[in-house]
Amino acid sequence: xxxxxxxxxxxxxxxxxxxxxxxxxNETTTVLGNDVKTKTSSAAxxxxxxxxxxxxxxxxxxxxxxxxxxxxxxxAVYRDGLPKILDNARVNIPADKIANSQWNxxxxxxxxxxxxxxxxxxxxxxxxxxxxxxxxxxxxxxxxGETVQLLKQxxxxxxxxxxxxxxxxxxxxxxxxxxxxxxxxxxxxAYNPVDLDPDTNSGILYTETVNVTAEQAKASSTTPFTxxxxxxxTMKVGNVYWLAQVLDPDxxxxxxxxxxxx
Length: 262
Fold this sequence. Notes:
There is one protein chain. By secondary structure, the protein is mainly beta. The protein has two helices and 20 strands. It has helices at residues 95-99, 214-219; strands at residues 2-4, 9-10, 16-18, 28-30, 35-40, 44-45, 53-58, 66-75, 84-92, 106-110, 120-129, 135-137, 147-150, 154-159, 172-177, 185-191, 204-211, 225-228, 242-247, 253-256. The strands form six sheets. Strands 6, 8, 9, 11, 12 and 13 form a six-stranded mixed beta sheet that branches. A four-stranded antiparallel beta sheet has the order 17-16-19-20, with no helix packed on it. A three-stranded antiparallel beta sheet has the order 5-7-10, with no helix packed on it. β8 and β9 form a beta hairpin. The chain starts with a strand and ends in a 6-residue tail after the last strand. The mean pLDDT is 92.
């Protein structure tokens, strides 16, 4: 903030002879403090995709200063008491950066990389500390540039034929949109023919799990990819309903479509 000086002139009797107004030029001293502004590496990520926060610290620092990072969520909106997926992670500011710090320039410090799962937003908070742990600067959670949206993978499918004859072969093809990890798979399940609406109680006609290639996984953050099942057939009349699911490397279903889509 500002410190405002005022000088008064008195005679030997203690009577004021002269003074000046507060806040005049050359009579104000600005006391500078540290400030921190932050920006995430990505505005939106898929579950399992790495991201981090960067704190830009303005102001002169003393040796031993450090930054702590907290990441809350996921949740649709920020609220007190949200769980942390990164808790008070300390990053020491390099000595050379501290030595070169100035009141009118900024220096950057990165948080550790993290991943998240679920749905909603991740909210970051960066706090700058002096060597003794006292807080020099921080900010409120949920500000612009500090929130990361968790996206959700999606899967759509297209059968090779809308109608086939008895014993004639057909298959399914799935297109996956969104980042998946290497080791992910696509599971296809075709249910036995039924007369009307989908009925999983009809039993499974065919099932297959297809591995996502390393190349597909690597490019999946920006490029959708397609996976096809092998062909199957049936000697029973009716509607065969397909279900395709995306499984992460530990087998958890991370995307699937409704059964019975056109």
